[in-house]
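Q: Structure tokens for this one, please.
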Amino acid sequence: MTLLAFGTMAVVTACAKIEAPPGGPPDTAPPRLIGTYPESLVALPGFHGEAEFRFDEVVSEGAAPGNANGTGDLQRLILLSPTTRAADVSWKRSRITVQPGEGWQPNRTYRIELLPGVMDLRNNRATSARSVITFTTGGPLPADTLRGKVIDWTTGRPVPGALIEAVLQPDSLPYRIGADSAGSFVGAPLPAGTYVVYGAVDQNSNGRREAREAYDSVTTTGNGPAVTLWAFPHDTNPPRLQQATPRDSVTVDLQFSQPLSPDQRIDTGLVTVRHLPDSVVVPVAALATQRVYDSLRQSARPDSTRPDSVAPAAPPAARPPAGAAPRDTTPGRPPLSDRLILVLKSPMDTAGQYLVLVDSIRNVTGISGSTRAVFAAPKQAGPLLRPDSVGVDSLPRDSARPDSVPE
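A: Here is the predicted structure, written as tokens:
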């Protein structure tokens, strides 16, 4: 090979290598949206082709391609409504294009929301900006608004990035909306009408509400008052008693597999305790939620200023994850709990084992069942409360409003 050929190959190789231009500070700015197609609030009968979001630089296409489950990296950033299928989302350097898998349908109001998260080739991520394209393929332009927030009923905290699915009646057209970092959402503009609004914890970020994910629903109309959705798992199995753990010689923690119904009366009629191996029935003084038990224990202290009268502290409550939002103070529903406190009338035999049976205990969706667990008595422990001071009649009923719990 001649020297000229070698030189030509070197020049071609050098030209094919793309690098950032030398000099100047590194680029730390995320991609900036500079336009959309089509523009919002236009009527486009017979529309075909692709809608698109245009940026001021080449954006990253991500590592996971689009698929029928909607879990591709770019698909996770797009909420296309109304459709029951995952959107077809494509990367075209500085553009992201979108179209329904079934094609654009006539006489529909379409809403395409771009969520925060678009990155450039240097991994600079847009974390706050979002954009919405709304247009019709026939019919009047939309003008209604839905607004509200989503709270995780189990933790009492807002759900950042919750998925909102507003199903327009009677056609069952689903409009999807993304909540912000505080669990709040605004869907506008939307077609006029009545909506069944779902608020879900989108665990796999595929933009679709699934039965195993925590959610709540409410019926409202466009331009109605703001709604609050309390997301919770809709388990079709009854609660299972996972563990019974003695705190002391008369007090036992009962830990269940899922949150219990706050509308069920909790009393000693739900529980039976037997001393093994002879199955002798052990009298029960009380069965209560943690909240009611804490209140009772506090009132049972004769003099909280005397050091020797202070009962041992209950196990500390689990701390929220670092950076978690504070508990929401919106009224409407009592707190959920997956734990009950059992108090016996007399101290346990320190060498014995006990069987606890809980009958007809309900979960939040109203599914009830019976469950049991075996536990060993503690070797030594002083009671938190005098057993004879804890009776069924002394326990207040939880103040859950029956109409506050969904059926």
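A few notes: The chain has a mean pLDDT of 84. The longest helix spans residues 3-16.
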